[in-house]
Amino acid sequence: MAAHDQGTPALAQATESPATARVSASPSTNDSDPSVLAHVEHYHGTRCTASPIYAFLLGEKDGSLVRFTHARKGLFTARLLLAAQHLNSAGGIHGSVSATLVDWAGGLAIAAWDLRAATGVSVDINISYLSSARLGDEVEIEGRVERVGSNLAFTEVRIFKVDARGERGAVVASGRHTKFVKGTKN
């Protein structure tokens, strides 16, 4: 019976709602790599904004709605202030917007991995919707490479609501994105 009691706190932590659980703070700008950050910003500004859906959701031509805050090998973070085009009819972030952000951030994480000029094509994407955000809320998007192989790259993306202190709050959505990357390395 004592062994069971010792495991109870861990079980309680494991069953906490992912939407309300705090996740580690944003990566520090101190450990950001300026060359990777410049590459991610350039990749977004030239390749991503050429896509009408990304331009609509993230800013026309210059990506003016999204602000990159950190990048290093295989990881980047950016912030986005939610506007009308990001919302569903109930006033929350639209599921298709969250899914598009997972697609976008997965590709940028691969670009951040080794400064490649192309990030391949999607072969699988999935997303879990955990909470919501509304008009005027800021969200932080984190794209992270799990593995880049010769054929496939695997990424994880999380979207956080930014709280009143400007820190990560609840996880809004979490996704995984797999891309076919053969022939994309510089």
Automatic annotation (TrEMBL):
<dbReference type="Pfam" id="PF03061">
    <property type="entry name" value="4HBT"/>
</dbReference>
<dbReference type="InterPro" id="IPR006683">
    <property type="entry name" value="Thioestr_dom"/>
</dbReference>
<protein>
    <submittedName>
        <fullName>HotDog domain-containing protein</fullName>
    </submittedName>
</protein>
<dbReference type="GO" id="GO:0047617">
    <property type="term" value="F:fatty acyl-CoA hydrolase activity"/>
</dbReference>
<dbReference type="InterPro" id="IPR029069">
    <property type="entry name" value="HotDog_dom_sf"/>
</dbReference>
<dbReference type="InterPro" id="IPR003736">
    <property type="entry name" value="PAAI_dom"/>
</dbReference>
<feature type="compositionally biased region" description="Polar residues">
    <location>
        <begin position="14"/>
        <end position="33"/>
    </location>
</feature>
<comment type="similarity">
    <text>Belongs to the thioesterase PaaI family.</text>
</comment>
<keyword id="KW-0378">Hydrolase</keyword>
<feature type="region of interest" description="Disordered">
    <location>
        <begin position="1"/>
        <end position="35"/>
    </location>
</feature>
<feature type="domain" description="Thioesterase">
    <location>
        <begin position="91"/>
        <end position="163"/>
    </location>
</feature>
<dbReference type="InterPro" id="IPR039298">
    <property type="entry name" value="ACOT13"/>
</dbReference>
